[in-house]
Protein: Dehydrogenase (Flavoprotein)
Organism: Paraburkholderia aspalathi
Amino acid sequence: MLGRGLSHAAPECVSNNALKLLGLLAPAVIAQPEVWLDVDSESIPGRAVVRNRLDDRLRVDVSAAGVAYAHKCLYPLLPRIESGHVVGVTCGSDECRASIVIDATGIAGCLRRALSLDETVDSSPIWLRRGFASGCSSQSDTYWQIARGGWLWLRPTSAQYMWTSLSVQRNTHIGLRSGIFVIGTVWQQCRRWRHLHQAAGPGYFVCGDAAGYLDPASGDGLRFAIESGIRAGTLAAEVSKHPGRSSIAAALYSDWALQDYLATKEVLQRVYIDAHLDIWRS
Ligand SMILES: Cc1cc2nc3c(=O)[nH]c(=O)nc-3n(C[C@H](O)[C@H](O)[C@H](O)COP(=O)(O)OP(=O)(O)OC[C@H]3O[C@@H](n4cnc5c(N)ncnc54)[C@H](O)[C@@H]3O)c2cc1C
């Protein structure tokens, strides 16, 4: 397993479906109090998490399970291709051969770029921001407001608030709620809704944001990343044992990833259209 081992100390909300998958995959992580920003409660859906703490803890679990994790920071990871098949990756002068490569490089999309994989871009650029907030408010539940120019999501955690916003414009004013103000770092990213036409092919599977990206209002990014990783890993193990099944495994995985993206997109698109929030490509 190769990676940069980097992620932001930004807040995210792990949906109930993602929590169920995490509980099956890495139960010890669920039990780590330093990962979570709130207590497990049936009355509030999902759980707030500090993203780099979750990722660090998952790496500890992966290593304890016997996976060799190597930090590769200095050079870009490039796929090695022979006769149209991905047969490993190179990183600078290091070469790592593998019968199957699983790409989970997020929005960087290493394989998409290197193999020029076909994709559809479904939205114009959107500006996403997130961070922490402090203050007092009569609002004790999750707050969600959507309008023509974007949306704001604000949620109390045990000690403070976490918030995420989308704007159709860059650098707009962040207006939280009365009595609540932004504290600390604000993380900003420009993204577009996009998905690969085929998220698997000869010698590779593409997971998570690298396979399909919708904005955080879907509430589903982590669930899709975890679930696609489980599916790709399971199919890769199957193909290693039975190489003759590689085409069917790639087709099954690609279809699942596409249908998952399209179903979530349809729901989100309806919410945006009702709010006259226009992020579609002109
Ligand atoms: C503002 C914002 C708020 C969000 N809030 C939520 C939320 O509340 N709930 C939710 O479920 N989802 C949320 N998401 C979405 C969620 O973060 C993503 O869907 C999820 O992180 C996808 O996981 P991933 O593993 O596919 O990609 P990532 O988490 O992006 O991981 C990719 C990893 O690959 C590494 N990498 C990239 N390129 C290379 C390379 N060349 N070589 C080696 N390593 C590389 C990166 O360093 C990174 O560690 C949010 C996203 C944003 C932008």
